[in-house]
Amino acid sequence: MLLLKKIFDFYLNASIHVAVATAALVQMTFYFCRLPFDATVTAFVFFGTVFSYNFIKYASFVAKQKTFSPSLKSIIVLSILSLIITVYCFFCLELKTQLVSILFGILCVLYVIPVTKSKTNLRNFAGIKIYIVSLCWAGVTTLIPIINANLPIEIDVIYKFLQRFLLTLILILIFEINDLKYDDARLRTVPQTIGVTKTKLFIYCLLIPFFFLEFLKVNYYPNQWIINLILVITITFFTYFASSKRSKYYTLFWVESVPIFWLLLIMSFRF
Fold first, then answer.
1. With contact defined as beta carbons under 8 Å apart, do 12 and 253 qualify?
2. pLDDT at 160
3. Taking Cα atoms as reference points, which of 42, 84, 16, 262 lies closest to residue 163?
4. In whole angstroms, what is the distance from residue 239 CA to residue 231 CA?
5. pLDDT in the model for residue 41
6. Cystine design at 250: which of 8, 107, 148, 246 (Cβ 3.0–4.6 Å)?
7. pLDDT of residue 269
8. What is each CA distance from 125 to 13, 53, 188, 233, in whole angstroms?
9. What is the pLDDT of residue 108?
10. How far is CA 53 from CA 74, 109, 155, in A?
11. Are residues 246 and 178 in contact, defined by beta-carbon separation less than 8 angstroms?
12. Cβ neighbours of residue 223 closer than 8 Å, sequence gap 6 or more
């Protein structure tokens, strides 16, 4: 059991689970846009997520330490391998996809590296963190697959982008509720600013446009409203029980699994 727990913790701490979640959203883009599976785009997003998340989480810590635990060494090795694969996949993408990817990459770098003389990065600007992450998730999982397939950015794509943006924003807010006792007060997260109860109400409000955006799409899938309703109920459940007293697994595994659950629902209703 101890070995299984170590493997599971590594799976979460090495950002593999969140990478599976982003890859799941990419597969949804392929499905809804009637695109064939693209291994290069999938690998680019998956390994790019592993590297970028680990870079954000561990870069400053690694820079200050001289010795590392075996687990952290494994994460560093995985991150380097992920970077190599990401770079290789990057050069296999279309030129315009590369340019869009660079924009999101710059946001990722600025998220960690100081942009002011006071050594403040975008992550530390009060209230901006959740929008940066939401923008990157929505852009990478929606725009990159479509642009690389040379499809036009039509109104349905914009609705998909907005849905992904709202979903990511909602999940981050649940994370912020769970991490309330750990977050630096200077970050001024939403729960720190307006409280847990109002943050949950805000999430419930965001779920409304997330659900109804589906009905605005031109290429509407008949079963999609059922799928999205199940998803909304699931997120409502996670929101209601979110608390700073919950373990890290509540968000790192269960809440982060929402995009994967969404894909599984879509695959189930295909038949």
1. yes
2. 93
3. 262
4. 12
5. 97
6. 246
7. 82
8. 25, 18, 9, 32
9. 74
10. 15, 11, 30
11. yes
12. 269
Sequence letter at residue 239? T
Could you tell me which of 71, 54, 52 has the C-alpha nearest to residue 7? 71
Distance CA(190)–CA(195), nearest Å, equals: 7
CA angle 108, 112, 114 (to 5 degrees): 120
Cα 256 from Cα 150, distance rounded (Å): 30
Of 4, 27, 34, 41, give the one whose Cα is nearest residue 261. Answer: 27
What residues of the chain score a pLDDT lower than 50? none
Instruction: Round the average pLDDT of the chain to a whole number and report it.
Output: 88
Q: Cα(160)–Cα(230) distance, rounded to whole angstroms?
A: 18
Q: What is the pLDDT of residues 143-171, one digit of tens each?
A: 999 999 999 988 999 999 999 999 999 99
Fill in the DSSP letter of residue 69.
-
DSSP 66: S
Distance of CA 246 to the CA centre of its chain: 21
Spatial contact of 58 and 14, defined as CB atoms under 8 Å apart: no
